[in-house]
Design goal:
single chain, alpha/beta, Rossmann fold, seven-stranded mixed beta sheet, NXPE4_C, NXPE C-terminal domain-containing protein
């Protein structure tokens, strides 16, 4: 009988050193209200890429709204002059976020993966890099910016792989946290954050009323806009309004009109898959998968509406992957997958690559994104009418050994740098997820995902009149 192997992922925390202090000296905050009538319906608002509804993750409840500003990521003194969107004396505080000493900046690997053969009961390590001296199975793809190797099994050939999965319990065994590292993780599972003592209790918000509207000119949502850093906006009644461009607020019935005769391909991690799933549910698309071994988490997925000529796809980005039950035959690295699509007017490519890279050295992320960038350039060269959207990271809680808003923020900065001056959309959802009344989650709640998709559709159909229906 043919013997097969399964892949198991074992997750290790980064080597964590002492917190690097962040300077808040001479920091001054000026807040201005936009609409005095918004207070009674406001859920939360955001002014910087690092705000939270409440410093301790408590939901805000009008009229006692909370405004929390997470001021500094780069050891700099800041003078903030930001716009608030409702009048009141909100509470204010400063959060210290662990800086470079906490994250993988020198070691190429901080996550261990395992290749497991259940029949022979042995475990083999896989990773982006392994010590030399033993035979390896090399599954790397330099064209796609992927380095991936495993120790060679004693009795199986390298092509006898079947499944890849994650094992969080084994991670705690192989990579236990030190006492010092455990102290950096609070009871919410949010690592490397601390509220600074002596934070100001209140900030006075001046009412400027409708005059504020003329101070916020918003262009049409389109590729090539200046990088909105930080991107700002506000929630009212769970509806997000961006100050970066003229966001549209689509009713569910209007999704069909906007997406008629269009094809959307979501590539990347599960935060992008959430967009795919929302569209499938909202549009009541028909799933076309025929392979019984395709998993919900990894895909590839295909769903259509034949009458409206709408096609929506999803595919996971490939190793490293902290997911389970993945048949390795379904893995195709994104640079190669992008080379297979036709593109053109009516074609939307959405890339979301970040969540599985927060336990690796920056070079691993850069290598992958450079290959994806080259593939996008080839796509835009052969099909210049293609709309390419790069989704940023969102804030999160969850598995402490993987959770770092600071490091996700660093990846976001790299993403912007790699794709600057290209005619693509950097769709910033960082502030959107921070501002919502729900706590931060690696997989945001459906209300948040819907607003992310609304923002996406504002670029897909920027001229659609959402008030007409």
């Amino acid at each position: 009988m043919r013997r097969t192997m399964r892949l198991r992922t074992v997750l290790c925390i980064f080597a964590v050193s002492a917190l690097v202090g962040v300077s808040f000296l001479r920091t001054r905050t000026e807040l201005f209200a936009k609409d005095p009538k918004a207070r009674s319906t406001l859920n939360a608002t955001t002014l910087s890429p690092s705000q939270r509804p409440d410093l301790r993750d408590r939901p805000v409840r009008p009229p006692q709204d909370y405004l929390a500003i997470h001021i500094d990521y780069e050891d700099e003194d800041r003078h903030l002059a930001e716009a608030a969107f409702w009048p009141s004396p909100p509470s204010a505080g400063l959060i210290r976020n662990g800086a470079k000493g906490n994250f993988p900046v020198t070691n190429p690997k901080y996550t261990t993966y395992r290749l497991v053969n259940p029949r022979d009961s042995y475990t083999i390590e896989c990773n982006v890099w392994l010590e030399s001296g033993t035979p390896h199975c090399d599954y790397s793809d330099p064209y796609a910016g992927v380095t991936w190797v495993c120790d060679k099994p004693r009795t199986l050939s390298c092509d006898r792989r079947v499944n890849h999965w994650v094992d969080y319990e084994a991670s705690s065994v192989y990579c236990p946290l030190s006492d010092g590292q455990k102290d950096l993780i609070n009871i919410e599972g949010q690592s490397f954050k601390a509220v600074l003592a002596g934070s100001p209790e209140f900030v006075h918000v001046k009412t400027m009323g409708k005059k504020m509207l003329s101070m916020l000119p918003r262009p049409r949502c389109a590729p090539g806009l200046p990088d909105p850093y930080p991107a700002m906006g506000y929630f009212i009644k769970d509806i997000w309004t961006s100050t970066v461009c003229k966001t549209r607020h689509f009713k569910s019935s209007q999704y069909l009109d906007c997406l008629q005769n269009k094809e959307l391909y979501f590539m990347g991690d599960s935060t992008g898959r959430q967009w795919f799933e929302l569209l499938v549910d909202t549009l009541r698309l028909k799933h076309m998968n025929t392979d019984p071994f395709i998993t919900r988490r990894a895909g590839p997925h295909l769903a259509i509406n034949e009458k409206r000529n709408i096609t929506v796809r999803f595919r996971v980005h490939g190793y490293p992957l902290r997911t389970g039950g993945l048949n390795v035959s379904h893995v195709n690295f994104l640079a190669r997958e992008i080379d297979t699509i036709h593109g053109g007017p009516g074609y939307v490519l959405v890339i979301s690559v970040w969540a599985h890279f927060t336990s690796f050295h920056l070079d691993i992320y850069i290598e992958r994104m450079r290959a994806i960038r080259a593939a996008i350039l080839r796509l835009l060269s052969r099909s210049p009418g293609t709309l390419v959207v790069l989704k940023t990271a969102n804030t999160r809680t969850g598995v402490p050994r993987l959770n770092s808003d600071w490091y996700a923020h660093v990846l976001d900065r790299l993403l912007r740098k790699l794709f600057e001056n290209l005619k693509v959309v950097i769709l910033d959802v960082w502030d959107l997820t921070l501002a919502h009344r729900n706590r931060d989650e690696i997989h945001p709640v459906r209300d948040v995902v819907r607003q992310e998709v609304q923002l996406l559709l504002s670029f897909v159909c920027p001229d659609y009149e959402t008030q007409k229906a």
